[in-house]
Amino acid sequence: MNVDFIQAIHDLAEERGIEEAVLFEAIEAALSSAYKRNFGTSQNVKIDINRATGEMHVYSQLRVVEDAQDTLAEISLADAKEISPTYELDDIVLQEVTPRDFGRIAAQTAKQVVVQRIREAERVQIYDEYTNRESDIISGVVSHIEGRNIFVELNKTEAILLPAEQVIGEVYRPGERIKAYVLEVKRMPKGPQIVLSRSHPGLLKRLLELEVPEIHDGVVELKGLAREAGSRSKIAVYSRDANIDAVGACVGPRGMRIQAIVNELRGEKIDVIAFDVAPEQFVANALSPAKVTSVNIDEANKIAHVVVPDYQLSLAIGKEGQNARLAAKLTGWKIDIRSESQVNLKTEEVDE
Predict the structure, then answer these.
(1) Fewer CB within 10 Å of terminal CB in the chain, N or C?
(2) pTM over 0.70
């Protein structure tokens, strides 16, 4: 140990945000173990490092007892009195046992401890940083692929995009920059595991906040969001200010804002719906792009009975029922869709 080493400890502590005392205590504890290991002893020792000069001493610690049985841990009161008449029973007597060649072992051990502590501190810093970014959007570069797991390089660490959080049909290539939603940050033995998602509805929500200043500023409210990742989404927006067109703000001039989000989601269709406090109108809006003839609300059963023109039926239901399914999820109403012909036929049957 020397002054240069002490200065290095000081600089590292300041740079990494680790307390100097924590580093020194860790080094001293490790040196105690190294002493026992290298010199084949179970002797109870104390390591003392001078914080200013770096000078190091090894002391055996012997408890004062009436009659010592274990000479590695105990010293008789009579022998202790010979060292200093002030010693009493249960006092600890320190005797220097610093080996001549202990400096080399000390330097090597100290280096290992410092490296380990720095890694631990970095893991804590990374965990704290990314825990605070849970439910946020993050940008990274695909570093490598293992099986179906995609690993994404972030600023100081690596995140994982699990198969369940990927979008069916999306292909990820090493070197490609992607945006993802920080789903969860877990403490793991080898450091924090950051789990990303490309399929979570939160990704669309965060992209809207990034692209639409009115949503970020709270001028336009995002009232609901329904997403089938990689295929289609519906969002409901609203503004308390009658002078602001909530839908227009999200779509942007010439559709530029919503198109930027569609591009980021690799072609996922996004329907921007005007929220309405009247459930009949909200359900009608949610079935866009289909035109609706009428909506009858059954409050008791939470069902919206919708009538559409015959030529709009397939559009209202959507491919494999997707449009109706997303509309139901967005509005919170079960939606029963019938064509005008179906309703008229049923009316005629009742009349007969």
Answers:
(1) C
(2) yes
